Amino acid sequence: MKMEEVWRFIDSGNGSAAFNMALDEALLEWNSKGEFPPVIRFYGWNPATLSIGYFQKVEKEINIEAVREQKLGFVRRPTGGRGVLHEHELTYSVIVPESHPKMPHSVTEAYRVISEGILKGFHQLGLEAYFAVPTSSQERESLKNPRSAVCFDAPSWYELVVEGRKVAGSAQTRQRGVILQHGSILLDLDEDKLFSLFIYPNDRVKERMQKAFKSKAVAVNDISSVRVSLEQAKVAFKAGFEEGLNIKLEPYELSETEMDYVKKIASERYENDEWNFMR
User: How many domains are contained in the chain?
Assistant: First the structure.
C-alpha cells in the first residue's frame, strides 16, 4: 500500500484581514523557494471583514461608508473573484506547487481536485454536497461576465452545492509556480449585512439581487439538521482534505521569524490603502 503524503496543517485562528492575506502570501512564497511543503491552513477573521477580489473597483462597487460604520475589516485579496463578507465561516487555504503530481495543469481541473477535500468535508457533516457543472452555453457565458459584485451569487465551474445552492466559494491564483486556492465555507450568513456593503443603481435592483441570492447560496446551518459549530467544521474539513487529497495533515506552528515576516508583508501591502483601493 502506498504511503500517504504528509502535508503541513496550520490552524492560525482569528487574524486581522491584513494578517490573513499576508500569511497566505508568505506560505506561497516559502513554497516557491522550496522552504515549505504543501500546506492547508484554516483561519477566521477578527474583526469580521469584507474582502474584495484583486480586480474589483472599490469606488464603483463597494459602499465603503457602510464597511466603516459596521467596523468591518477591509482587504483586497491577491486572488480574483468578488466581494465576500467573512464572518460566520471557516476559511481555508491550500498552497501547493503547480508541478505537484496530484495537480492537473488546467486551473479548472486543479480547482476540482483541491475542492474534493471540501466536498468530503461536507460529507463528513452529513450534507449531500456535489459539484455543479454549468450545462447550458448561456450559463457558461454568464460566468465570463459576472454581473454581481457579490461572490456567492454565481455558481461557477465545479462549484460546491447542496440542494442546488452554493455552500462554499473559492478563488485561485498561480504565482511563482505555486497554486494558492482559498475560500469560505459559510456556517451562518447575515444577508442584510452582506447586501449593505455594495453599491447598487437603486433599491429595486438591490432587492432583486438579494432575492436572487437567497435562491443561489446557503449557509451550512440553514440546511444542516444539527447545528454545526466552528470546531466541528474544522474537524470535518480537516478529515475531508485528508480523504479527498489522500494526504496526512501534520500540525505546524510558525516560528517567530516566520511570524515576523508575515507581519512585515501585512504592514507593507495589506494594511496599505494604496493596495486596497488601487483600481
Answer: 1
Domain that holds residue 145: 5-276
User: 205-256, pLDDT tens digit by residue?
Assistant: 999 999 988 888 899 999 999 999 999 999 999 999 999 999 999 999 999 9
Beta bridge partners, 198, equal: 62
Hey, what's the torsion of the CAs at 24, 28, 30, 36, to 10 degrees? 90
CATH number, domain at 102?
Answer: 3.30.930.10
Residues of the chain with pLDDT > 90, as a percent, come to 74
Give, as one character, the DSSP assignment of residue 8.
E
Point out the residues that are catalytic.
Answer: 151
95 by DSSP, 3-state: which?
strand
